[in-house]
Specification:
By secondary structure, the protein is an alpha/beta fold. The protein folds into two domains: 10-72, DNA polymerase, domain 1; 77-387, Alpha-Beta Barrel (TIM Barrel). Helices cover 37% and strands 17% of the residues. The protein has helices at residues 21-30, 35-47, 61-70, 130-133, 142-160, 185-196, 216-225, 239-245, 254-265, 287-300, 324-336, 368-387, and strands at 14-15, 71-72, 77-83, 89-94, 100-107, 112-115, 119-121, 136-139, 172-175, 208-212, 229-233, 273-279, 304-310, 341-343. The strands form three sheets. Strands 3-4-5-6-9-10-11-12-13-14 form a ten-stranded mixed β-sheet. The chain has a two-stranded parallel sheet with strand order 1-2. A two-stranded antiparallel ribbon has the order 7-8. Strand 13, helix 11 and strand 14 form a beta-alpha-beta unit. The relative contact order is 0.13.
Length: 388
């Protein structure tokens, strides 16, 4: 007996990019299809990066007809695309209701990294981040997160003439774009499942990195559900300064954060935590502060590496880019202490795609604008205190 499936209105069609493999298998069962159909479909969607059901040639015609009636492949659509002189590419994706998010592709000799967003805006309010200045609207859906990779991989393949589904352009994914990924944990985990799935994008856990400002409970949950590489935004070695730079520290101070890092390392694909450290001229870039970082990680016994990120100025920040020689001296101090430390190469700053510059357009639901003046005053106070 043939299953009869009610044809939905166009607006009710299921977006297949919203499903990880388990979800796709369950949906296929719901419409009367066997589990192997979900595997076939997932390979077309994510390994071939195909959105046209008619081109999925090894699917049964009846299944393809059912897909056309019930489902669609709907990634977020770019509003603009910018290409940097250094090969970096940035897409601004429309996510509806006047909101947009950004993704950045960074080519290297040995890898291609895509930095993707997880929220429209950000509610964390870090002093040095342009995204936070625009406020927060909502979490992205799984389809909106996965769709950034889907779209970028498809466009890059087309540009480079790549037709073999095994020849991937994007080898690394970092959730370091707009938003705090761990505030959108459920959708982020489903996206990670697809990134790691051999019938999806087939990336290793070492090649997917989640960045967090330090949400302790959610770090533990990520370790349970999808323990990929972890990058923690640190930016200060003491609670007094970190409270001012990152409001999250008032709820999750450094001692709690370091304990969460130790717990995460028990399940992590790497034997170290990456600490991101945005260097702000005159605020956190002194050699004394480098020494304080060394004491912190030794005292807390957290195996780590540091990624130093020279601050990228943006409108309304009132913060300064650090002196290049100061950055290098800071880096040397940490390396001499036996802590692997690198300075992030600035990429894509001519198209506002460098770290901390992603902003897009977001409707402010968090009264962010009303707090901007206070943040500017705090920045001025920090600069005054450290330069006197």
């Amino acid at each position: 007996m043939t299953d009869i499936v009610k044809e939905p209105a166009a607006s009710e069609k299921v977006n297949l990019l919203d499903f990880d493999h388990a979800g796709l298998t369950a949906w296929c069962a719901q419409i009367g299809e066997k589990p192997f159909r979900a595997t076939q479909l997932s390979r077309w969607l994510h390994r071939h990066v195909e959105g046209d059901f008619d081109r999925m040639t090894n699917l049964a015609k009846a299944f393809r007809a059912k897909l056309k009636d019930l489902a669609e492949v709907r990634p977020p659509v770019p509003i603009t695309e910018k290409k940097s002189a250094d090969g970096t590419r940035k897409w601004l994706f429309d996510v509806g209701n006047g909101n947009a998010v950004e993704s950045v592709f960074i080519p290297e000799d040995d890898r291609g990294t895509l930095c993707i967003s997880s929220q429209a805006g950000c509610a964390m309010g870090c002093l040095f981040c342009s995204t936070g200045k625009q406020g927060f609207n909502r979490n992205l859906t799984t389809a909106e997160i996965v769709g950034q990779l889907w779209w970028a991989e498809r466009e890059l393949r087309r540009d480079q003439g790549v037709t073999d589904p095994n020849d991937r352009i994007i080898s690394n994914v970092v959730l370091m774009g707009m938003g705090e990924p761990l505030q959108n944990l459920d959708n982020v985990v489903r996206a990670i499942n697809l990134f790691l799935d051999d019938n999806g994008y087939g990336l290793s856990r070492r090649r997917v990195t989640v960045s967090t400002s330090g949400l302790v409970r959610q770090m533990d949950k990520l370790g349970e559900l999808a323990p990929v590489a972890l990058a923690v935004s640190l930016h200060a070695a003491n609670d007094e300064l970190r409270d001012k730079l990152m409001p999250v520290n008032r709820k999750h101070p450094l001692a709690d954060l370091m304990a969460a890092c130790r717990r995460y390392l028990k399940v992590a694909p790497r034997d170290f935590i990456t600490f991101e450290y945005v260097m702000l001229g005159g605020i956190n870039d002194s050699l004394a502060q480098a020494d304080e970082l060394i004491r912190l990680v030794r005292r807390e016994e957290v195996p780590c590496k540091f990624n130093l990120i020279p601050f990228n100025p943006f409108t309304q920040s009132d913060l300064r880019k650090p002196d290049r020689e100061q950055v290098l001296a800071f880096c040397r101090r940490l390396n001499e202490a036996g802590i692997v430390t690198t300075v992030r190469k600035t990429r894509g700053d001519d198209i506002d795609a460098a770290c901390g510059q992603l902003a897009g357009e977001v409707r402010d639901r968090t009264r962010r604008a009303e707090r901007l003046a206070l943040q500017k005053a705090e920045a001025a106070e920090l600069l005054g205190r450290t330069t006197n």
